[in-house]
Specification:
single chain, 122 residues, alpha/beta, 4-stranded parallel sheet, 4 strands
Length: 122
């Protein structure tokens, strides 16, 4: 992935209302969130989501945040994740992007971990 302009990247819970500043709304969860219409997102990049095993290990365990981020970073090196990262980079080159997630924890979720990983990788 080319180095994106991360100033254009934001994170938001999918259940929050759409705003004018969202830009492209990209869902980065493996599972489709309950009660959400397909029109609520522009792209679903499930290959940027943690694996089901990693998601299950971490779910509801903010005390394992650092461990989760390290394991998730390793998964982001995979072929499918790299292809999804290319799509994300293309969207960022076109304008603002909002990464969407469904988790209740607004501080410890895969979208936050992805944004932090992108900032470090830059």
């Amino acid at each position: 992935m080319t180095r994106p302009d991360l100033a254009r990247l934001s994170v938001k819970r999918i259940y929050e209302p759409r705003s004018e500043t969202d830009g492209a709304r990209i869902l980065v969860d493996r599972l489709w969130p309950r009660g959400i219409a397909k029109s609520a997102i522009d792209v679903w990049l499930k290959d940027l989501a943690p694996s089901d095993d990693l998601r299950r290990q971490f779910h509801g365990r903010p005390d394992r945040w650092d461990e989760f981020r390290a394991a998730y970073a390793a998964e982001l090196g995979g072929t499918k994740a790299q292809a999804a990262l290319d799509i994300l980079g293309q969207r960022l080159a076109q304008g603002p992007v909002t990464l969407l997630y469904a988790a209740r924890d607004e501080d410890h979720n895969n979208a936050i971990a992805l944004k932090l990983w992108l900032e470090i990788a830059k």
